[in-house]
Predict the structure.
Amino acid sequence: MSQTFDIAILGGGCAGLSLARELANLSYSKRVIIIEPRTVYEHDRTWCFWADAQHGLSELVSKKWSHWRFSSQNQKVVHTGVGSSYQQIRSSDFYQACLEIISTRQNIELRQGLYAKTVSISDNQVSIETDKGLFTADLIIDTRPRQAHDDAAMLWQVFSGAEVETEAPCFEPFTAGLMENMKSEPRGLKFTYVLPATTNQALIQTTRFSPTKLSPTQLDDEFQADLDGLVQCPVTVKRWERGCLPMGQIKRRATFSSKVIPAGQAAGVLRPSSGYGFLRIQAWARASASELVKDSPPLAKPFGSRLERTMDATFLAAMLQSPHSAADWFIGIAKCLNGDEFGQFMSDSPTLKSWLKVVCALPKTEFVHALFKVTSQFDKKYYQATK
Ligand SMILES: Cc1cc2nc3c(=O)[nH]c(=O)nc-3n(C[C@H](O)[C@H](O)[C@H](O)COP(=O)(O)OP(=O)(O)OC[C@H]3O[C@@H](n4cnc5c(N)ncnc54)[C@H](O)[C@@H]3O)c2cc1C
């Protein structure tokens, strides 16, 4: 016997829980199930983004930085946010807040310890086979990560790092090191990300933009060397944080039904040129929930404008062609935009003015060549979710 729901959300991570939270906030009355393998939610990542002082998740922000820095061997740029700041939400706080609001709604059920295996459609319903039984639903929102064979991207943002505590004060708590000590190397741009919480505590990650998908643990030794260079006193590792994020995701096979909506990172939500996705997921969750309460299922559509996706793909193609120049290009972008413009450029949909400034700051020949390559392949290759 299967259990029947109106909506089944596969995956209770950032996208799945964000949607459930928005549905709960709007007092959605139909039956929703979230199928999530994790039995316990732990602090497994931190989400950072640029935002104004007040926004819908302000109460969850654990730290804000008004200054952020970029540096390479011989150049340094520091931005100051006037209207916006770089903000951090700990995943444990976010999960907890979502679970609390979901638990107030009897019609929204989080089922933990369950793996969704296969999804099939018959008549007007979708069946989900899990390791603990069969479920049916009218609509599926599928946020499960992509399978390895289905996961392709132009570049990968691979990082390994940790939250550390030092015995002596080592960090400047008001400035985030976004891209520190950038080095253009044949196997991709390398930099260090330093998010100081206090003078003694920071999240430090060694990051590479790699043309091949690497296991993040392959960067552990480089992280240790970077940490030794930054901190000259005894240090304790509190929590590791590693990841491998697609940049310029290659499009997936077509969605086979309007009843199965791909969502989250697996559906291409991350901004191709930066890997940021948290705010996009929140915007998607709000828009989808407001459609669902009106009884109109959300459509799977590409994230960001066509211009943005083309320009991002062009930037990535140029980086692939000229890996030795990437550090100078990022310094050039940081120089041509002010703090607020940069924040918007990295996370949200950038304005035309910011695009023009960025285009002017970058070398024309490489970019025209990359643009030609990208536009001739765009529809075939680069990410476009099915309509
Ligand atoms: C370490 C790390 C740090 C990041 N930092 C930032 C940041 O600072 N800013 C930013 O904007 N973005 C960041 N990102 C990128 C992005 O915002 C996150 O990856 C975000 O969590 C993506 O949300 P999601 O729901 O698509 O995926 P996830 O949050 O990974 O959720 C997917 C869910 O699917 C579940 N699942 C897996 N298999 C199954 C199955 N068979 N059946 C059912 N469920 C399944 C998983 O358990 C998980 O809960 C970061 C990513 C990582 C990995």
About this structure: Residues 10-16, 35-38, 45-49, 115-116, 143-145, 241, 243, 245, 264-265, 270, 276-278, 281 surround flavin-adenine dinucleotide (CB under 6 Å). The mean pLDDT is 92. Residues 133 and 338 are 54 Å apart (CA to CA). The first strand starts at residue 3 and ends at 10.
